[in-house]
Amino acid sequence: MFDSIAQHLTFPPFTGKKPFKWGQFIAIPLLFTLMMSLISACGPATPKIHLTLWYWNRSIDDKLIAQVDKVFPNVVLNAVKINDYDNKVRTAMAGHSGIPDILGINSNIATYFPDENQFVDLRTLGANSIKSEYLPWKWSLGVAPDGKVIGVPTDAGPIGLFYRADLFAKAGLPTDPAQVSALMPTWNAYLQEAAKYKNATHGKSYMVDSANNVYTLALSQSTEQFLTPSGQYIANEQYMKNIWTITSKAAQTGVDAKVAPYSTAWNQAVSSGYVAAFVGAAWMKQILQDATPNTAGDWRIAAAPGGPGNNGGSFLAVTTASKHPQEAYDVAKWLESPQNQLFAYKDIQLFPSTIWALNNPTMNQNDAYYGGENTNAIFAAAAKNIPTSYKSPYDTDITTDFTDQADLMDYRGKSPTQAWNAAQQASQRELLR
């Protein structure tokens, strides 16, 4: 390479007495700079860093993923969208093989705490500097019992009461969200109004979809879940008995439609008016719109009975399998930055978990589908006041033990006492495995 450079350069013969000239003095450093530039140009290019991200459909905005290589020119991101997500992740982690650099984790993040050695403590990569940007309760869900931070928060799932204003008006109920919120501040008040509504519609329409949903969302409002951080089982205490009483009332007094959410039957029920109200998370807005285009303009959203609660919302983790954990964290942090969370909400309705995005004026938009209501005001107020609660690695399985029994009360007429005892026995077995 030096020979090829030299053949393009010529020097005057040296006589030993040639007078000094400023031009030659200036030319020397310029020549050196030129040679160094040519040498650099001939050297090897900076190697790219290859990272793999696993996620599921709509957990991250695909438009943001497509921008990663522009924001991080040294990174090549292989983003893999996976079905049957948890099973795929569990298989890879159990075999310690094929684990990606960045891993999406759903709201069941606590189930991964026993495997926390397979995740990088994000505090070591700078996560403490962004902690204050996120809702405190949301951040705490990604913190393992020993204090290790294993997840950057993505979206949140604050809950509200969805209802058909036109059907409420026909039944003599108020239609303004503030009035509806004031009428049904508690679950008992909600169920009482649901009984009146059923009578007013002669059983042709209902204000509650299922007892299962009542249980799930009432639990989401509780500071206590199933276990304490020390591992003590508390799901047989009074707070859970109160939730069970509400659940059994929904199932046994005939005020619920006995239609399971996320089913074809549910889509038909909300479209036809058979289900005129239900409690759901912010991400249900899009699901409802997709299921009921024929009712655009009729729906409204009020505060959830029982107070603020959260259902759903995800995280991004960096695995110890990554050879480039800092770069992986930087990408995850960028994907879930306040500005990008706002973008993801506007694009695919992922409700933000960052305080800046929640307070951004552009979140306050009147929604034509919801009769021109600024529905985000309801959800943002809930998101800022959701209670912090401890989630254990066993919560997901124990929840199923209770919701299975709620279904048996709802669809098979099982007595509340029998269902309660069966749920307690099943959850205790979960802890003995």
Terminal-residue CA separation: 68 Å
Determine the number of helices (DSSP H or I, runs of at least 4 residues). 19
Using the coordinates shown, work out and report the CATH topology of the largest domain: D-Maltodextrin-Binding Protein, domain 2
Counting helices, strands and paired strands, the structural category is: alpha/beta
Task: Give the helix level as a range of percent.
Answer: 40-55%
What's the CATH H-level superfamily name of the largest domain? Periplasmic binding protein-like II
- Secondary structure: number of strands: 8
Percent of residues in β-strands: 5-15%
Radius of gyration: 29 Å
CATH architecture of the largest domain: 3-Layer(aba) Sandwich
CATH level 1 class label of the largest domain: Alpha Beta
Point out poorly predicted stretches.
Answer: 1-32
Principal-axis shape: globular
Mean pLDDT across every amino acid position: 91
Count of discrete structural domains: 2
Largest pleated sheet: 5 strands, mixed
Order of helices and strands: HHEHHEHEHEEHHHHHHEHEEHHHHHH
